[in-house]
Structures are given as structure tokens and as C-alpha cells.
Amino acid sequence: xxxxxxxxxxxxxxxxxxxxxxxxxxxxxxxxxxxxxxxxxxxxxxxxxxxxxxxxxxxxxxxxxxxxxxxxxxxxxxxxxxxxxxxxxxxxxxxxxxxxxxxxxxxxxxxxxxxxxxxxxxxxxxxxxxxxxxxxxxxxxxxxxxxxxxxxxxxxxxxxxxxxxxxxxxxxxxxxxxxxxxxxxxxxxxxxxxxxxxxxxxxx
Length: 204
What we know:
Elements: H1 20-23, E1 28-35, H2 39-51, E2 65-74, H3 82-94, E3 99-108, E4 113-118, H4 123-129, H5 133-136, E5 146-148, H6 158-166, E6 173-177, E7 179-186, E8 194-201
Antiparallel strand pairs: 1-2, 1-7, 3-4, 3-6, 4-5, 7-8
């Protein structure tokens, strides 16, 4: 379960600063996502964040979500550029139905712990194929659907973290996805909230 995570000896302590060398003054970064807002899901997320609070930076304000694909820096925000509008048309034409996902066990990347997302019917890959994700050249080939719990505040021994995460007991939570969103966040606020620019309702 933690094999990739344990390839690193320690976690990565995220710096809370303005990464100007990355955004070069571009104010917003865009991405496609599924919002996670059901009460049972939020209860599970809060439980894990509280459990790990001493390991994480405080002040994480980004709303719970599952990232589907990255659009990148948005130089023309808030207008939607042609590639985004193309993705919207393709998603609407696909007439995807609402579908179930499961919020599951706690795992971790080097930078952050997360809750795994199980996709029993395989809809996430179908959605990602409609989002021109390969055209953006910045989406990793290996896709791990997840909900981020926050960023590590120090470099911790990964074997110790894996042991702690293995000790967390909580039930999987199933929820229904009925909407896909395109959102943006301010590049200067690495833990800041996002703003939804477009919503696509799925068929019921």
C-alpha cells in the first residue's frame, strides 16, 4: 500500500511562500475536479486531518476535491480559453451519467497525506479522456485519484508515517458524483481556496 511512499526516506516539508519562479506573475492556476461535500465524506476527512494535525501545516483552506486533470496557469482568467471550452463540449456530448465513488484508506505522497478514492465503475478515466489532459503536457501518466488532507510541515521518516497511517481505522464512504467542475486557485496561495468557474451536471 505504501510502496511508492516508502521509496523516499522522508516526507517533503512544503514551504508556505509565493513560488514566483513557477508562476512568473500569472495569478491563477486552473484544474478540473470533482467536489467532495457530502456530510459523511467531510466527517471522514475532518477525522483524518485532526489525527494528522501535528504533522501538517495549519491553515489549509482548499476545499475537499478530487483533481481530474490540470489545465495549468491561466493567463486570461476568468475567461475560458479554447482548450477549456473544447473539454466542456466533449464532456457535455458524452452524456455521462452520475456514478459512485468511494472515499477509502489513508495513504501518502512525499508532500502530503491523502484519502484514496476507489472508482468501481471506471468512470474517472473516461472523464479524463474528455479533458484533453494529454494535450496539456503537465498531467502525470500515473493517475492516483485522491483527496488531499494537507501538506507536511517537516521532513518526517516515511516508515514512521506509514506506521501511523496504518493504525487509522475508519470505514469507506460511498458517494455519488453528479457534477464536474472547472476551478482556479491563486498561485500565491499554496493552501488557499479555489473558485469554481464552470459546472457540468451529469445525467441522472
